[in-house]
Amino acid sequence: MEKFFLRAEPCSATCLPTVCRFGQGFDPGCGQRAAVSIPKPGSTRTSRSANSLARWLRLAIGARRIFTVVPCHPNPIMWRSTAGRLEKLLIQNARQLHAMKCGWGANVLTNLSIPFQCATLTELVRRRAEFQPASRAYTFLDERGLETGYLTYADLDFRARAIAAGLQEISSAKQRILLLFPPGLDFVAAFFACLYAGSLPVVVYPPRRNQSMNRLSAIVADAAPSIALTTAGSVTHTRELFAQLSCAETLTWLATESICNDLADQWHDPQSTSDDIAFLQYTSGSTSEPKGVAVSHGNILHNEKMIQRAFRHDEQTVVVGWLPPYHDMGLIGNVLQPLYVGCHCILMAPVAFLLRPVRWLEAISRYRATTSGAPNFAYEMCVRKISAPQRENLDLRSWKVAYNGSEPVQRETMERFTQAFGRCGFRAEAFFPCYGLAEATLFVAGGMVQKQPMAFAANADKLAENQIRPAAQGTGEVRWLVPCGYGWEGERIVIVDPKTSTQCADGAIGEIWVAGANVAQGYWRRPAESAAVFQASLRDTGEGPFLRTGDLGFILHGELFVTGRLRDLLIIRGRNYYPQDIELTVERSHPALRLGCGAAFTIDHTGDSRLVVAHEVERHVGALDSKKIAADVRQAVAVEHDLNVAVVLLLKTGTIPRTSSGKVRRSACKTGFLQDELSPMAVDDPGALAVRVRPGGPQRASSVDVPGVSAS
Description:
Blueprint: E1 2-10, E2 32-38, H1 46-62, E3 65-71, H2 76-92, H3 94-99, H4 121-131, E4 136-141, E5 147-152, H5 153-170, E6 176-179, H6 185-196, E7 200-203, H7 214-223, E8 227-230, H8 235-242, E9 252-255, E10 277-282, E11 292-296, H9 297-311, E12 318-321, H10 328-341, E13 344-348, H11 350-355, H12 358-367, E14 371-374, H13 376-385, H14 388-391, E15 401-404, H15 411-421, E16 431-436, E17 443-446, E18 456-459, H16 460-464, E19 478-481, E20 492-496, E21 510-515, H17 527-534, E22 547-556, E23 559-565, E24 570-572, E25 575-577, H18 579-587, E26 593-605, E27 608-617, H19 626-641, E28 645-651, H20 666-674, E29 682-684, H21 689-693, E30 703-704
Parallel strand pairs: 4-13, 6-7, 6-8, 8-9, 12-13, 14-15, 15-16, 27-28
Antiparallel strand pairs: 1-2, 1-3, 4-5, 10-11, 16-17, 18-19, 20-21, 21-22, 22-23, 24-25, 26-27, 28-29, 29-30
C-alpha cells in the first residue's frame, strides 16, 4: 500500500479546478490534508480506496477547493507506478465524478493531466478528448493576425479519426505520408491523422514556383512516401510542381477536405507502442544533405516532459507561436508541447510576423500569452521594425518564457529587446536561451525560468586557440557567450575531443555529446551514419551510447555554452574563427546589409585560407555603392577580428541559400561561389581570387558595380 496526501486550497469562481497534478513534488504545506491509500493491482481494498477518494472529492468540490496530489514515495519510478493506479481509480469512477458538477458548471475532471502515463501521442490526444472535450487546443491567426478558426480536443480527435480512416482504406500501417500543408489547423489535423492511422508523417514545406526543388527531391527519394496529403486549394498547384521529380511519380495525391467526417466511426486503433516511430523529422541540411531522423513516440513524449519541466508549463500556460510546422521548434514546441500539458496554443501564419513583426507581440498581448519564442533574429527584427507608436499599445507583462534558440543567442540582442520593450512590461528574466537539435527530438538544454541569463565575457584571442579564459576588464578583445542551461530529466551532456573521443575537462571546448531518452533511434534507412552519430562511446571509459551533435561548446559552472558548428569552424593562420561572429560584424557594418542574411567561409588558395563573405542587401536601397559597402565590411572585420576579407559578394534579397527552417547554408554558399552560381549584384574582389580558384569557370572582373540596379 502507498499513500498520497491530498491538499485542498481555496478556489475562485473563475478558476477551473484541477483534480490531479502529478510528479510536481508539491509540499503539502499548511493546507487541509488527508491520506488516501492506493492499493496494488488485484487488492481487495480497491473499492474502499475509491470510496475514500470520492468522498474527498465531494468535500473539496462542495467547498470550492483545488486539489493537488502529493507523492509520499521518494523514488520517481515507484511514484509513477502509484500515480498510474490512482489514475485508474479516477477513470473507473469517472461516471460518478462526471456527475458531480461545480457550481459554475465546470467538470471536475476538466484538467486531469497525466501525460507521462501515455505510451503514444495518439493515446494522449484520445485522453485529452475524453477529459477535456470542449477545451480549446489550437487557435489559428492568418497573415493579417486575425483569428480564422480553432480546434477543441474533441474536434481534433474527431477529424483525426476521419482522415485516418480514409488513409487506412488506401494504405497500410508504417507507410510514409508526405504532408505538404501551409501552416494552419488543416495541418494539425492531418499530422495527428497520420499517427492515428499508424503511418509515418513526413513534414515538409509546400513548394513555391521559382524555388529550388533540390531539398524536396532529396527528402522524397529518401523517405519514399506512398501518399501526399495537402489541402484542396493546393493540390493541383503542388502536384504540378512535383511533376518534375522522377522520384514522386508513384505518389497518390489526397486533399484532406475530400475525406468525409462520417468515416470517423470506421477508424481502428493501430495499437502503436512507445518504441514505434511516430514521424520522420528531416534535418535542416545546413551542413549536409537532409536526413530523416526517426523519432519514436517514447522519444517525443520524454522530450515534451523535459520541455514542460524546464519551462514550468501547466494547464494554465498560454502559448503563441509563428514558427512553421516543418521547423522542429514549430512542430514540437508549438504544436505538441501544448497538447502534452493540456494548454491553449495560438498558432500564427509565419508571414504575419515576417511582414509585420509587431503582430507577434500583439498576439502575445491580446491572448495574455505566457510562453512564446523564436530564433535570435526574430527578437532583433522586433527591435528594428517595431516603431515607438506601435509599442505604446503592447502589454507584455504576461510573457514569462521568451525562449531563444535554433541559432546563436546574442547578448546584445537580448539587451536591446529588453530596453525597447521594457516599458511594455517585458522583463529581462523572461529570456530563456536554449539549445537543441533534430537528432535529440528537439530540446537538449535550458536554464531556469524567470532567472536572467548571465553572459560570460570570454577572451577572444584565447577562444581562437580553443581555450576559455575570462576577458580582462577594459580590453576590447571580448566575445560575449550566452549560456544555454543544462540537461533535464536524467539527460547527460558531455564535452568531448572530436579527434580522440575522450572527455574534455570543464572549461575546454569540444564537441557536444548527448545521452538520454530524448535521443532519437537514428537516421531513416542509414545504418552506417546512424551508428557513427547515435552510437558514439568515450574511448577512455567506454561509456555510451552518445549522440554526436556536431556542435562545439564547453561547460562552465554546470551550464552549457555553444560556440558553433564543428563543420563550419573557420581556421585561418592556425586560429579558430566562428563564422556567425564574422557574419554579425558584417551585417552591423553598413545599414544596407540585411539582418541574418550573410555567410562567411574560407577558400583555400596556394595553401592559404582566404576569407569570403556573401551578404544580402536590403530592398529599395536605391543605387548600390558596392565599393563603400565593401570598404565598411573590410574595416569592421579587420577591427573586430584582425582578418582581411578577400572577397565581398553583395546578393539580392532572398537569394542566399537557406534550409527550409531558414538557416543559411554556408557550405552551399561556398559551392555556389566556386561554381559561379550565386549571381551577385556586385562583387568586390581586388585580388581576383574568384578567377584563380574557379577551375575553368566564367571569369569576373575584380570589382563590379551594377549601375542603376536596386536591391529589390
